[in-house]
């Protein structure tokens, strides 16, 4: 196989030009808070971001305050170190208003001084839709230090944005994003966007940040040749539902490999620096042949067979195992990443050949309900997992495509957690939430369920009411009480929220680097 993604420098070069200008402006500033340079949307794709360039006579440490409508929506961030030159990144501005931002300057002797600046922003695009706050209990929400964590509605194909505890938009990107919106180990973002704004496909995998600065970009132009004829080029979007960063910083991507017959059943690991493929995982070499040769669960207009439909993956570094979710097989499974050998399978045993039965996990709950068309697999405690037991969280659409049909199917969707004992080969369902919300929140496709702290889980019912509504619900797993609930409606077709993620606007420092990217 010969996918050759090109590492783009076009966007990076444009960004570096802006960066160089900011460096020159900072250098020319005179000391004093009144002489600060205040910039809104410094990199042109993040309208609710800003940059304050300021110098002080004495070395000071800066604390940033972005004033909200309430204490729970006011964001604070302490910058590290004592400096005389400050490059303060501002995130969390409101749309369509004059925002107030305060910098607190603290000298090493403890003496403080203050300066407040204003930042005027434009209206958010109408395509974001209408967000209605139904429930908000900030003291019980997982908002992080300084209330900097937002609920991000990650788009299926359109506008990704972040909401505060009051359901107000505090961040969005003008770049169209599809499915992938992840935080990297270096605190940058990894997004799947378009190579050019007018392009039809989402074939640009970009390393960026919340300010919109571009660090690198991988352009996938459909260069994965078909198995039948290597001279032909794939015409579909190469990267689709997921991308994750491995411990060596390489990227593992779910891809279409250009086959004339099958789609969404392959993964590739690409070198982070060179973009060259270093590993290919073809699921047809791992799962039963009958799963793809006899599949009739769904049909595509182009006639290709979407027998697996891989929608998420998670790397367990403690065990060097990869956990994979496939919607159209109603299946989650784990493989050893190095050897790609199967470790276990979580699915109903229907239509599974005898030689694969030994990998099936045995439920310990009475009337265990298998997932159907599930999404968003992830370990609950990735850094606390030891021994043979793991806690797996996922979103159960409850729409069996291939196996596991019950009387409860398609009656609701739910966020769920199971405990898996890999030594004993058992699975126990330990938590589920969604049944009480009923048919209203049943989602045939998309969705997510992630623990966010304080014993809470954030669930994204992304395709409610047949895709006319998305709902974001934060619930306490112990009490079952909802502490945050937002309904989203009136958005463009296809722009339903693929996932709901709780992320900090300031995962690292708020001091913005202005050095030229090489």
Task: Note down, in words, how this protein is organized.
The protein is mainly β and 518 residues long. It contains two helices and 33 strands. The strands form seven sheets. Strands 2, 3, 4, 5, 6 and 7 form a six-stranded antiparallel sheet that branches. It has a five-stranded antiparallel sheet with strand order 1-15-14-13-12. Strands 8-32-31-30-29 form a five-stranded antiparallel sheet, with no helix packed on it. β12 and β13 form a beta hairpin.
Q: How would you briefly describe this protein structure?
A:
InterPro entries: Arylsulfate_ST (IPR053143), Arylsulfotran_N (IPR035391), Arylsulfotransferase_bact (IPR010262), ASST_N_sf (IPR038477). This is Aryl-sulfate sulfotransferase. The protein is mainly beta and 518 residues long.
- Main sheet makeup: 6 strands, antiparallel
The mean pLDDT is: 92
The first-to-last residue Cα distance is 30 Å
Helical region count?
A: 2
User: What Rg is obtained from the alpha carbons, in whole angstroms?
Assistant: 24 Å
Return residue spans where pLDDT drops below 50 for at least 5 consecutive residues.
1-14, 225-235
Please, what is the oligomeric state? single chain
How many individual β-strands?
A: 33
Counting helices, strands and paired strands, the structural category is mainly beta
- The amount of beta strand, in percent, is 35-45%
Helix content: under 10%
Shape: globular
Pfam families: Arylsulfotran_N (PF17425), Arylsulfotrans (PF05935)
Domain Arylsulfotransferase N-terminal: 38-122
Protein name: Aryl-sulfate sulfotransferase
InterPro entries: Arylsulfate_ST, Arylsulfotran_N, Arylsulfotransferase_bact, ASST_N_sf
């Amino acid at each position: 196989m010969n996918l050759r993604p090109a590492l783009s420098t076009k966007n990076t070069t444009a960004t570096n030009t802006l960066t160089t200008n900011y460096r020159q402006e900072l250098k020319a500033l005179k000391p004093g808070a009144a002489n600060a340079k205040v910039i809104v949307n410094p990199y042109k794709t993040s309208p609710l971001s800003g940059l304050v360039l300021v110098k002080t006579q004495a070395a000071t440490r800066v604390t940033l305050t972005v004033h909200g409508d309430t204490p729970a929506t006011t964001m604070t961030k302490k910058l590290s170190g004592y400096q005389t030159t400050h490059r303060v990144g501002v995130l969390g501005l409101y749309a369509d208003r004059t925002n107030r931002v305060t910098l607190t300057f603290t000298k090493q002797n403890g003496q403080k001084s203050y300066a407040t600046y204003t930042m005027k922003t434009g209206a958010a695009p109408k395509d974001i839709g209408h967000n209605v706050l139904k429930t908000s209990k900030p003291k019980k929400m997982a908002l992080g230090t300084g209330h900097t964590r937002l609920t991000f509605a990650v788009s299926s194909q359109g506008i990704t944005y972040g909401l505060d505890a009051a359901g107000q938009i505090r961040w969005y990107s003008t770049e169209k994003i599809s499915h992938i919106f992840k935080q990297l180990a270096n605190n940058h973002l990894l997004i799947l966007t378009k190579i050019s704004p007018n392009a039809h496909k989402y074939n640009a995998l970009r390393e960026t940040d919340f300010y919109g600065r571009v660090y690198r970009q991988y352009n996938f132009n459909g260069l994965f040749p078909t198995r039948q004829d290597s001279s032909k080029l794939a015409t579909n979007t190469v990267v689709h539902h997921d991308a994750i960063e491995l411990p060596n910083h390489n990227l593992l991507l779910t891809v279409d490999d250009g086959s004339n017959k099958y789609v969404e059943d392959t993964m590739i690991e690409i070198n982070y620096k060179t973009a060259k493929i270093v590993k290919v995982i073809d699921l047809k070499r791992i799962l039963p042949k009958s799963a793809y040769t006899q599949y009739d669960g769904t049909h595509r207009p182009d006639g290709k067979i979407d027998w697996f439909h891989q929608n998420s993956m998670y790397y367990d570094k403690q065990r060097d195992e990869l956990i994979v979710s496939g919607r159209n097989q109603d299946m989650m499974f784990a493989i050893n990443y190095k050897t790609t050998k199967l470790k276990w399978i979580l699915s109903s045993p229907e239509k599974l050949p005898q030689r694969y039965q030994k990998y099936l996990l045995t439920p310990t709950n009475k009337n265990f309900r298998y997932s159907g068309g599930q999404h968003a697999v992830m370990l609950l405690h990735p850094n606390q997992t030891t021994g043979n037991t793991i806690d797996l969280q996922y979103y159960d659409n409850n729409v069996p495509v291939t196996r596991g049909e019950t009387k409860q199917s398609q009656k609701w969707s739910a966020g769920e957690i199971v405990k898996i004992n890999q030594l004993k080969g058992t699975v126990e369902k330990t938590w589920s939430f969604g049944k009480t919300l009923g048919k209203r929140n049943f989602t045939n496709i998309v969705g997510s369920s992630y623990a966010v702290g304080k014993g809470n889980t954030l669930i994204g019912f992304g395709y409610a009411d047949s895709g006319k509504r998305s709902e974001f619900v934060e619930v306490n797993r112990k009490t079952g009480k909802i502490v945050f609930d937002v309904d989203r409606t009136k958005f463009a077709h296809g722009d339903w929220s693929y996932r709901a993620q709780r992320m900090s606007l300031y995962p690292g420092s708020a001091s913005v680097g202005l050095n030229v990217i090489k």
